[in-house]
Amino acid sequence: MKYTFSHIGIPTTEEKDWDGYYEPGKIHYTDFKTDEFRVEWVKFDADSPMPKMMRTMPHIAYIVNNIEEALLGKDILVETFSPGKGVRVAFVSHNGSPVEFMEISE
Fold it and tell me: What pLDDT sits at residue 28?
């Protein structure tokens, strides 16, 4: 499995110039593609259903060719979901830290 670095996500309680909002997870986020160091800031609403690890710890994200293959044998933290057209995302717990896998189709 090839993992290609995408970004780092950092939880915050501060207000930012949010680029989007993912309603099911109640997550505000910035666009990491416009950040010099590929940082995505994330802020969770108080009633967000996301796991505590996601809400309190930074995560690193990798692009993978096949998300099902990437998840095999992993400790799944958040099941696969689609935050936007052509993007599938899942989170795993790795050594006590969240890791994001992203599968992007054209």
Answer: 97
| Residue 32 per-residue DSSP state | G
Task: Report, in this order, helix, strand and coil percent for the chain, each rounded to 5.
Answer: 10, 50, 40
Residue 9 in tokens: 């996500």
pTM, two decimal places: 0.94
Residue 35, CB-side half-sphere exposure with 13 Å CA sphere: 17
- Rounded Cα–Cα distance for residues 54 and 56 (Å): 6
Write down the CATH superfamily of domain 4-104.
2,3-Dihydroxybiphenyl 1,2-Dioxygenase, domain 1 (3.10.180.10)
Domain regions of the chain by residue span: 4-104
